[in-house]
Specification:
By secondary structure, the protein is of the alpha/beta class. The chain has 8 helices and 17 strands. Helix 7 runs antiparallel to helix 8.
Length: 291
């Protein structure tokens, strides 16, 4: 039976590139065949799993330059049944595409907000006059170029090849070490992994309300690789806290910490225990390293 994997589309997005790499790795591990199905936005991509249109979904969660993808975090909090089964990390190299032969002719640049943010300094230096317009994905941005000869789009070199669009500039990231982290999400929690992602709310917004949850980790020497707050959307000044831990859910110290976290938080949601797969794509295909 072929397993369907949903991903942020259309075809040619960085998320699809990460999904292809994950699919190749899975096939090497299991021999199973997979079908990739693109969705127009992150919310619909995650909902595809709940609606059983796909067994797994791949969505971006964090970029090394621009930070977290808020809609991914918010949706995972709201949709309780989703569980992280795998982490993916993909190097990102942005390319400026356009049918205009010269940079100075451009008046608009389309792309996903994350890509626009990751290239902000380059855009300010080379195209300070252009209007920046956000789209649901980097590939969706290309749809505007056929009708607008003075428009450009930030996308991947692979997208340029797939959609036969000329490249005006390459390697336009503000920083060379640009990577995006993705989560593979399903309905079946994995029994163990090297990382745990969770989120919680605190009973009251008072001094010290965050100290108790964090001290339950610190006193057991459990390292946090990420912590971030997001608004609860109920009241100004109320926040949720998203945390990534290094450790296995089978470790006794981690288990004790999770019990204590439950006792000192208002709502605690554990999104999953998982490993991380590093994806390296080149002209020879894809290579993988797992931790």
């Amino acid at each position: 039976m072929t397993i369907t994997i949903a991903h942020l589309g259309p075809i040619g997005t960085y998320t699809e590139t990460a999904t292809i790499g994950y699919q190749d790795w899975l096939h090497q591990q299991t021999g199973q065949t997979y079908h990739l199905r693109p969705y127009p936005n992150i919310l619909q991509t995650l909902q595809a799993v709940i609606q059983q249109e796909a067994k797994l979904a791949v969505v971006p969660v964090e970029n090394s330059i621009q930070g977290s993808v808020a809609i991914t975090l918010d949706t995972l909090w709201e949709l309780d049944c989703l569980k992280i089964e795998q982490g993916l990390i993909l190097p990102i190299t942005h390319t400026l595409l356009s049918h205009s032969p010269q940079l100075e002719n451009l008046k608009k640049i389309y792309s996903h907000p994350q890509a626009l943010g990751q290239c902000q300094r380059w855009l300010d230096k080379h195209l300070p006059q252009v209007e920046l317009i956000a789209t649901n994905s980097t590939t969706e941005a290309l749809a505007h170029l056929a009708q607008e000869t003075t428009a450009g789009a930030i996308a991947s070199q692979r997208a340029a090849e797939l959609y036969n669009t000329p490249i005006l500039a390459t390697n336009i990231n503000d920083y060379p070490d640009n990577c995006t982290r993705f989560w593979v999400v399903g309905l079946e929690p994995k029994p163990q992994g090297s990382y745990i992602s969770l989120a919680f709310s605190v009973p009251k917004n008072i001094p010290g309300s965050l100290v108790k949850p964090l001290s339950s980790l610190a006193k057991r020497q459990i390292n946090m690789s990420r912590i971030e707050s997001r608004p609860t959307k109920r009241s100004l000044g109320e926040y949720l806290f998203f945390i990534d831990l290094e450790g296995s859910a089978t470790d006794s110290a981690v288990q004790e910490a999770l019990v204590e976290l439950h006792d000192c938080t208002s709502v605690l949601k554990i999104f999953g225990s998982y490993n991380v797969l590093f994806l390296l794509h080149d002209t020879e295909g894809s290579r993988h390293t797992e931790t």
